[in-house]
TrEMBL record:
It comes from the Bacteria. Residues 68-109 form the DUF6708 domain. Keywords: Membrane, Transmembrane, Transmembrane helix. It comes from Xenorhabdus szentirmaii DSM 16338. InterPro entries: DUF6708. The keyword Transmembrane helix applies. This is DUF6708 domain-containing protein. The lineage of its organism: Bacteria, Pseudomonadati, Pseudomonadota, Gammaproteobacteria, Enterobacterales. The chain crosses the membrane at residues 20-45, 57-79, 99-117.
Length: 145
């Protein structure tokens, strides 16, 4: 907050990171399972001096393929949340009486105060309040602040 604008954040700002933490942990766990399974199979075959059958190779490739897909999904989801913007402010400019809302895709929605209907409600977490707003007029896209 300064003499020109009041800045607040989006509703989901406080909950960022929990899902990516779980996804990262799951990816590491599945990677460990894949490494341990491959190592155990090699150890078992070397102790028995048995060649691996075609059915065993197919099962191993299928299982490792599924584990690789799961690991890839976990890594992709984790990196998607870690390396994108996690702060989408809402700015209320008092000098020109405009509201600026930053979106996930990078656009900035701006609208005059008179075209908004704002309602302050108790949030999910009891110590925070959420601002719900409704755009009545056509918004202006692409304005810089």
């Amino acid at each position: 907050m300064n003499s020109t604008y009041l800045k607040t954040v989006d509703v989901q700002y406080a909950d960022k990171g929990y899902v990516s933490l779980i996804s990262f942990g799951a990816g590491i766990a599945f990677l460990c399972i894949m490494i341990w399974g491959g190592y155990s199979l090699i150890q078992a075959l070397s102790l028995r001096n048995d060649p691996l059958s075609a059915q065993g190779i197919f099962s191993l490739l299928l299982l490792n393929g599924l584990l690789c897909l799961i690991i890839f999904g976990c890594v992709k989801f984790t990196l998607m949340e870690w390396f994108k913007k996690n702060h989408y402010p809402i700015r209320f400019n008092r000098k020109n009486q405009m509201v600026y809302v930053y979106h996930v895709n990078g656009t900035i929605l701006s609208a005059p105060w008179r075209s908004l209907f704002l309602r302050l409600m108790k949030g999910i977490k009891k110590q925070l309040s959420d601002i719900y707003w409704l755009m009545i007029m056509k918004p202006y896209y692409g304005h810089s602040i």
